[in-house]
Write a structure and sequence with these properties.
Blueprint lengths: L1 E5 L2 E4 L4 E8 L8 E6 L6 E6 L6 E3 L7 E6 L4 E6 L8 E7 L2 E2 L3 E6 L1
Parallel strand pairs: 2-11
Antiparallel strand pairs: 1-3, 3-8, 4-5, 4-9, 5-6, 7-8, 9-10, 9-11
């Protein structure tokens, strides 16, 4: 399985972005999927995750109420809707599922 994260970019504080994590090679519909972020020189931080069925979601306290994770199994894709973005959300975001990890996508929030 190859995971491809996309959707990052530059946005002003208070703005929104939607990240996508698309799987190719095989379906990851039977796996939970998580979003993580990691800034240079800092430890990896959990952002959000969704169960294989999509029935359960989990969020870091820092993003709860602002970010929403969802999945579309028909498209083999997991999304991270990010609203009310803050400058401290600036970093590289990447998705992980089972033993697979995608390359990151950079999110930059300007103040």
């Amino acid at each position: 399985v190859q995971l491809q994260a996309s959707g990052g970019g530059l946005v002003q504080a208070g703005g929104s972005l939607r990240l996508s994590c698309a799987a190719s090679g095989r379906t990851f519909s039977m796996y939970a999927v998580g979003w993580f972020r990691q800034a240079p020189g800092k430890e990896r931080e959990f952002v959000a995750s969704i169960s294989w069925s999509g029935d359960s979601t989990y969020y870091a306290d820092s993003v709860k109420g602002r970010f929403t994770i969802s999945r579309d199994s028909s498209k083999n894709t997991v999304y991270l809707q990010m609203n009310s973005l803050k400058p401290e959300d600036t970093t590289v975001y990447y998705c992980k599922s089972g033993p697979w990890k995608g390359q990151g996508t950079l999110v930059t929030v300007s103040s």
